[in-house]
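Illustration: ATP-binding cassette domain-containing protein.
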Amino acid sequence: MTHLLEVVDIAKHYPSGKGAVKAVDGVSFTLERGETLALVGESGCGKSTTARLVLRLIERSRGTVRFNGEDITALSPGALRRFRRNAQIIFQDPYASLNPRLRVGEAIMEPMEVHGIGTPAERRKRMEELLGLVGLAPYHAARYPHEFSGGQRQRIGIARALAVQPELVVCDEPVSALDVSIQAQVVNLLKDLQARFGLSFLFIAHDLAVVKHMADRIAVMYLGRIVEVAQTNELFANPRHPYTRALLAAIPHPDPARRGHVKPLGGDLPSPLNPPPGCHFHTRCPFATEICRSQDPVATGGAHSVACHHADTLPPMGAAYEGHISEAARRRLARYAEASAARSLAG
Ligand code: ADP
Ligand code: MG
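Result:
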């Protein structure tokens, strides 16, 4: 069986003055049918550019994207139309992607019209079904986008994407602009629809917490490259790249005693215009050595792939950050050690 999606070493470089903005700089991954692969990383690391390259909304500087085994840059006009139908996108801000002058029902029927699906009556019937599927009602069809809340607008965006029965849905930060309570509802809706229709998701987020309960696998991106890929449980249990560890450490822990032990990642994401040589992460990495400053690390490949010169010798996650334990936490730990020593002497 071929992969639904196979991305091999894609890059997008934007010429800029003397150099180039390397928005995406050698990204490879696969996506299977019915799978959710999350693409996670800080704002500006190249997630949306990757999404656009995968959908061929922009042309690549290098690399290959295969959808159902076919190179999407070499499709005949008919095959390209089928690809456009089969691979849909949901945006972070559905308000920006919905035409404000189009009633919601029309917005959902539009992609069916574009692809010549059904008669007008069939399209209307399907549109009403879709409204039901995403938790809206038939009377919503006559309203305009501005009459809806952010969460409802995202439901409209989902209905519109599903109208043409795609295999792949690229979700570009679909919940990042929503309140936390609404985020969970939209994520659950997407999961339900996936189970029902066997959809495959490339799900983009800047936060690991959002994808923990949603993704089968997670790819962590840093400055135009993927630094680590693993099954979700494996990535959370055994993060191997220092950047992944920093992202995990940034997730607020429900237990206050376990908060604040890890120094958050210092410094800003460097500019993709002239990225640092060697490992792109070395300017912010607590473990960086000479080799990291001069040589690109090669991804190990396999089910848990990591691109780090020191991945095999890094201490376990807890110990790895010992040097970053705050002074207050260190004092607390010292008091605890004293108290338990005193107890054992007394006992
Ligand atoms: P993300 O979605 O992860 O926030 P993007 O893919 O939108 O990141 O952008 C990655 C980098 O590429 C950013 O530094 C951005 O400024 C730059 N970039 C994106 N599009 C363009 C463009 N059309 N021209 C020049 N630079 C761009
Ligand atoms: Mg983006």
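Reading the tokens back as a structure: Residues 319-330 have pLDDT under 50 and may be disordered.
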